[in-house]
Design a protein that fits this description.
Blueprint: H1 8-25, H2 42-47, E1 53-54, H3 57-62, E2 67-74, E3 80-81, E4 83-87, E5 103-106, H4 112-124, E6 141-144, H5 147-155, E7 161-165, H6 166-169, H7 181-186, E8 201-205, E9 209-210, E10 213-217, H8 223-233, H9 237-241, E11 257-259, H10 267-275
Parallel strand pairs: 5-6, 5-7
Antiparallel strand pairs: 1-10, 2-10, 2-11, 3-9, 4-7, 4-8
Helix pairs in contact: 4-10
């Protein structure tokens, strides 16, 4: 099972309940978790049959015929999340156009929430994104690492602002921060506000993005493939709780259950990828 790129120890810890759930509920499987170095490594691993299960929209959209979709992940009662742009509280950056001439920290170059959505909205605001995300931007100085390192660069003063996903950024907002109505209605992380330091302010929020899909490679011929899908779709909060490791931080849980989904739900993601120059196979 390929996790989304990030700090390996943190990613494995977050997804440990999912691994335990599958190993506990599906007879005869031994699910192992691997953390790819970046998103570009996921599709080759699936095509070469080095992995059976993945969970990112970038790979799914890049070659949908390669995957059979189980569904979209649900956490905190929501199947959606957000991309947001953060700056220090005292920053004079208040809107997207203020990013011109600044340094900006992004997550992985192919991260939906940590790169692509932000580049698209900066482009829509009139900034020249140059060859980003594959190369350098023209109107700002961008750096690409991962979600955690992006916020660390911001905290260290190595960047004027950063882009990340809601579950990573919202804890750094002061408790009681006003958010757009769409965020109020769809985010499952608002109760984490004020739980992390340092604190930042948000200057932009995306529209609700479907959370990451979970899928199996279509060439995987095994009865376990459908059994795993059934376990994921029928999971509940009570069931996944049974598989928490000791001292598990529930706020980091990336999965409670799956909801039925289709490629059409991810069409806005595809649109933004195409707009910033990410090409897909036919």
């Amino acid at each position: 099972m390929l996790l989304t790129p990030g700090t390996p120890a943190d990613a494995r810890q977050r997804y440990k309940p999912v691994q335990n759930l599958l190993n506990g509920e599906v007879d005869g499987v031994d699910v192992k978790m691997e953390v790819p170095q970046d998103y570009s490594a996921i599709r080759p691993a699936l095509k070469s049959e080095q992995a059976e299960i993945g969970m990112d929209d970038v790979t799914l959209l890049s070659n949908p015929d390669l995957m059979d979709v189980y569904g979209t992940t649900v956490t905190g009662g929501s199947a959606f999340y957000f991309s947001l742009m953060l700056v220090p509280p005292e920053s004079e950056i208040d809107e997207r156009t203020d990013v011109k001439g600044k340094t900006w920290a992004f997550a992985d170059r192919l991260s939906t929430s940590g790169s692509i959505f932000a580049l698209y909205t900066l482009q829509q605001a009139g900034l020249d994104i140059g060859d980003a995300p594959k190369g350098d931007a023209e109107d700002f100085d961008g750096s690409w690492t991962d979600h955690d390192q992006a916020l660390q660069r911001l905290a260290n003063g190595d960047a004027d602002g950063a882009t990340t996903w809601g579950g990573n950024g919202i804890p750094h907002l002061p408790e009681g921060t006003d958010v757009p109505q769409r965020v109020e209605e769809k985010s499952s992380f608002l109760d984490t506000m004020g739980s992390e330091t340092p604190q930042f302010k948000a200057i932009w929020w995306s529209f609700p993005i479907p959370k990451q899909p979970m899928y199996a490679r279509s060439s995987w011929e095994s009865e376990k493939k459908s059994e795993i899908g059934e376990v994921l779709l029928n999971s509940t909060k009570d069931k996944i709780t049974e598989y928490y490791p000791e001292e598990y931080n529930e706020e980091k849980l990336p999965f409670t259950t799956l909801t039925d989904t289709s490629l059409e739900d991810y069409e806005p993601v595809r649109k933004r990828m195409n707009a910033v120059g990410i090409e897909f196979d036919a």
